[in-house]
Amino acid sequence: MFTPETLKKELNAPKHIVVTTHHKPDGDALGSSLAIYHWLKAKGHVVYVIVPSDFPIFFDWLPGRQDVKIYMEDKSANDALIADADMIFCLDFNGLARINAMEQAVRSAAGTKIMIDHHLEPEGFDDYRHWDSGAAASAQLVYDFIVDVMDDHQAITLDMATCLYTGIMTDTGSFRFRTTTSSVHSIVADLITLGAKNWEIHEHVYNSFSENHLKFLGFCLLNRLEVLHEYHTALFSISRQDLNRFQTTTGDTEGLVNYALAISGMKLAALIIDRTEQVKLSLRSVGDFPCNEVCKKYFNGGGHRNASGGNSNEPLDKVVEQFKSILPEYKERLT
Length: 335
Known about the structure:
Layout: H1 4-10, E1 16-21, H2 27-42, E2 46-51, E3 68-70, H3 75-84, E4 87-91, H4 103-108, E5 112-117, E6 128-131, H5 138-149, H6 158-171, H7 182-193, H8 198-206, H9 211-223, E7 225-228, E8 233-238, H10 240-245, H11 256-261, E9 268-274, E10 279-285, H12 291-298, E11 302-303, E12 307-312, H13 316-326, H14 331-334
Parallel strand pairs: 1-2, 1-4, 2-3, 4-5, 5-6, 8-9
Antiparallel strand pairs: 7-8, 9-10, 10-12, 11-12
């Protein structure tokens, strides 16, 4: 493993660097990646941000977004960039399976791999790790990495502050989750002092939905929400037909699971979606209910205690049935 001193020394000389993050990047993934991108570029490195897939259009305004490469749009060229990289910064994921089609290219690359992440149980592919499962967001850890590990607070620009604020805001549910500590608020205050326009960022992310998105949301609330009062659990099950009917795009299901959890008395919420190639699950909980345990044990996934994801190759109705069949096992913890 590299030490901070070794890494500092390595970064003193110009490098070819790739920055990447997980499949279907969210605000934390993109905010972290673009903040590191701006920081490294300012130091004279040649930097490429390559992400495994597309992402919500409400992040298109982020500074540096125009330079983000989608891996599958030019796989051969991106594979060459990954193979030639001196360093690969891996942000907001702890296992290479999370980058899907990019996994083999990154795994076999000779470049030094730096992981900055807050998810449980790192795989161990990295050469340098800045990791804390108790952190509110990977963007918080990127801030820590630049400010504390690299001792480079003066390098944080307006663009970097904007990206980092976006990452922390989105991964804390607008600063309402349990991980939003006084330290997080101190970091956010510093980012605002450095120029991040908190109100403007919120408008971009949460008040720029399409008409179809709002109609889809209304449809799901009226027709796809099921409440299992006995288990203090609520769920949405969304079919391919539902997605096609409202011409949904990446990001249109973002946050939908939180509406189920917002029902008074609910301790567990699930969003189960037929994504054609697989059925995807997102679980959210309150208190000490272990979403990550359920996803890891039954749905090939994992994540945080109160927010986890998984998948299944079974049909949608079978996955919903399986999820419901698990609940009696956890009845005591749910009630």
